[in-house]
Design brief:
- The chain has about 425 residues and is α+β, with helices and mostly antiparallel strands.
- Helix content is about 25%, strand content about 40%.
- The protein has helices at about 10-20, 25-35, 40, 60-65, 255-265, 345-360, 365-380, 385-415, and strands at about 95-100, 105-115, 120-135, 140-160, 165-175, 180-195, 210-220, 230-240, 240-250, 270-280, 285-290, 295-305, 310-320, 325-335.
- The chain has a 14-stranded antiparallel beta barrel.
- The protein is elongated, with a radius of gyration of 25 Å.
Length: about 425
């Protein structure tokens, strides 16, 4: 397979050599991808970058919410939108994802994360592929099979600073189009900040999050840059069971892309809006809408159940892709939870936490530590409770040392 003078991975003439009547639409997909676009996902960036499969959304939950995921916490798939979100995970997670795309193409992903050093490390692998099909020459004769495969192996880490999350990831990208192999590398970096924003309802202590990430910063895919992106996300939980999410995304491939972000809705500037309703931590309903994108609306539903110390999440989503028809996905994730936390446990933990804060304000450190330990008994994952207990114990230790020093000084003064 040859390369054009402009550096394209595959020529028009080679594409048409692959085409017969029965395979026309499948080859059209190959043409679309190699000319730097999968129309359902990146119609706005035609001809600007290589390895555009990196723009395909990952995670059924995020897809159901139109990929408004840059400010999301407690989900392993934040590694694809903002690796800082890995710092918010609380326990080991294994996630498996399958997505049916346009024209018989598929997207597969498997991800695993594990807590380490006040954060989480994650390893993921994504594959975008089309089943092998016949290669037909200009005389209509079969000349073997055509293989089309895109793969991205990613390793990321997110750290919890208590007041914010910081994360990054590195990825190895491999593309195979018939006889042509392309290798490239990239990094992602991100930051995520949580805070309280007023709500008349009962909400988490940090019910508002803002996230910023830079994605796919790295080497070229052959002679074309990777689809570098800047993402800004906002999320607000009005209640414990209802949240609204907004993402703004801009390609950073050309200098003119910055103009698009500032003045809006030109070429690659996109806005994604999503919402999620969770009932009793058992079932979740999701919806989203994309502005200035190849897709428009999406819907999703998820179910959560627990068997012993393993939590299972099963999610599915449906999205409209215009003239290309719908796309849909399915995923299942497993969370290894040392202690299963019930809704009543969460309520009891919140009550003891409030008492602990009151004791702390009143300078009653031992009583505050006791209340926080009670919080941990009910919910070991409540608001970084381990770190708060350690901080209070350190304060109590310093307080006693200070009292001992004061006693020594008074003794010296009396002598």
């Amino acid at each position: 397979m040859s390369e054009t003078a402009e550096g394209r991975i595959i020529t028009f003439s080679t594409i048409f050599m692959l085409i017969n009547k029965r395979k026309f639409f499948l080859c059209a997909l190959i043409l679309a991808v190699t000319l730097r676009t999968v129309a359902a996902y990146s119609a706005e960036s035609i001809g600007t970058s290589g390895a555009d499969f990196l723009e395909i959304g990952v995670g059924t939950r995020s897809l159901g919410m139109a990929e408004a995921f840059t400010s999301m916490v407690d989900d392993i798939n934040t590694i694809y939108y903002n690796p800082a979100g890995l710092g918010s995970l609380k326990y080991p997670i294994l996630s498996i994802h399958h997505q049916e795309l346009i024209l018989d193409s598929r997207f597969e992903n498997i991800s695993f994360s594990y807590p380490i050093e006040h954060g989480n490390i994650a390893v993921t692998n994504s594959i975008f592929w089309v089943p092998p099909f016949d290669r037909i020459d200009i005389n209509g004769e079969k000349k073997g099979k055509v293989n089309f495969l895109n793969n991205a192996l990613t390793v990321g880490y997110g750290y919890d600073f208590d007041f914010m999350y910081l994360g990054g990831s590195v990825k190895y990208i491999y593309q195979q189009i018939h006889t042509l192999d392309v290798h490239s590398f990239a990094v992602d970096i991100g930051v995520l900040k949580g805070m309280y924003l007023y709500s008349p309802f009962d909400v988490p202590t940090r019910n508002f999050h803002i996230g910023i990430s830079f994605l796919n910063l790295g080497s070229n895919a052959k002679n074309d840059p990777l689809p570098r992106m800047f993402r800004l996300g906002l999320s607000y939980k009005l209640t414990n069971w209802f949240g609204i999410y907004v993402d703004m995304t801009e390609n950073l491939i050309n200098a003119s892309d910055l103009y698009d972000f500032i003045y809006g809705f030109e070429e690659s500037f996109r806005v994604n809006i999503g919402a999620e309703i969770t009932l009793f931590d058992i079932v979740a309903f999701r919806a989203g809408y994309k502005l200035n994108d190849g897709q428009t609306y999406s819907f999703g539903v998820g179910f959560n159940f627990v068997i012993k110390n393993v939590s299972f999440n099963i999610d599915t989503h449906y999205a409209d892709s215009g003239i290309f028809g719908p796309t849909y996905s399915f995923s299942i994730s497993f969370k290894l939870i040392p202690k299963v936390v019930t809704m009543q446990d969460k309520l009891d933990a919140a009550e003891h936490y409030k008492k602990g804060i009151k004791h702390f304000i009143d300078n009653q450190i031992p009583q505050a530590v006791d209340e926080f330990k009670a919080v941990k008994d009910f919910d070991p994952y409540y608001k970084n409770i381990d770190r708060k207990i350690q901080d209070l114990q350190e304060i109590e230790k310093l307080k006693k040392e200070n009292e001992e020093i004061d006693a020594e000084l008074k003794k010296l003064e009396s002598d």
